[in-house]
Design goal:
Helix content is 35%, strand content 33%. It is α/β, with parallel strands linked by helices and 245 residues long. The strands form four sheets. A five-stranded parallel sheet has the order 2-1-3-4-5, with helices on both faces.
Length: 245
């Protein structure tokens, strides 16, 4: 199911976007769930939905489109955002903060939107095929691209997820425990190297008898009790990856 949010104070234009999406016939209508919002405030009150695609008017009463996009990105970094407006030019602020996929200038025959809608819908299909892990933070949920995760360790309450972020290591504290997350990740190439952490096998760059190294220079110990199983799974993972080439 694709969740598409349309945030615009013009109800007629919201219906126009829906009609154009359905008319494109790229995604089956039965696979789409539309969400209507007439203000940025209402959209931000529903961030837990984690929309796949968001059409966002720049000029709206109250919170404008740029500020709405900035706040949305806190909880939904992967949504495809499309800015729509009658009069605006892309600004450095909107590019850096909102990271929109497209800017659509509204026109009388909706020519610009019709021209771009194919690329927009194909982009959310591409992202939909990517695999994400949904976790709970304080008061909100976020999606993390599994391929970015280096390893996950236990915390006093929940767990710490360590992921690559533009060359830096980001630590995310979520409520889910390793025992809850591991079943969702074992088929994606994750394995226990220690009772305290599970490792993304794809990120292992060196493995010896007592420790392993991950991308980013992270070094972790391998416990005796987990060593044999970890090595077996690592070899199976390498063979599987080799077979894909």
């Amino acid at each position: 199911m694709y969740t598409i949010a349309i945030c615009d104070d013009d109800k007629e234009y919201r219906e126009t976007i829906k009609k154009i999406i359905k008319g494109a016939e790229i995604i089956n209508e039965e696979e789409i769930q539309f969400y209507d919002y007439d203000s940025g405030k209402k959209l931000l009150s529903c961030v837990d939905v984690l929309h796949n695609l968001i059409f966002l008017d720049i000029r709206m009463p109250g919170i404008d489109g740029n500020r709405t996009a900035e706040l949305l990105r806190i909880s939904n970094k992967e949504a495809v955002i499309v800015f729509c407006s009658n009069y605006f030019e892309p600004t450095l602020e909107s590019i850096n903060i909102g990271r929109p996929f497209r800017y659509i200038m509204k026109d009388i025959n909706d020519t610009n939107l019709k021209k771009e809608i194919g690329d927009i819908l194909r982009e959310i299909q591409r992202k939909h095929r990517m695999k994400y892990l949904t976790v709970t933070l304080t008061g909100r949920m976020i999606k993390i691209l599994i391929n970015d995760v280096l390893y996950i360790s236990i915390a006093k309450r929940g767990s710490f997820i360590y992921k690559a972020n533009n060359g830096k290591i980001e630590e995310i504290h979520c409520r889910e425990t390793i025992k809850e997350l591991y079943p969702k990740l074992v088929d994606e190439g994750f394995e226990y190297a220690h009772n305290s952490y599970v490792v993304n096998l794809e990120k292992v760059v060196d493995l010896n008898r007592t420790s392993l190294k991950l991308n980013g220079g992270i070094e972790l110990n391998i416990s005796r009790s987990k060593k044999r199983k970890f090595e077996e799974h690592f070899m199976q993972f390498l063979q599987k990856e080799s077979g894909k080439r």
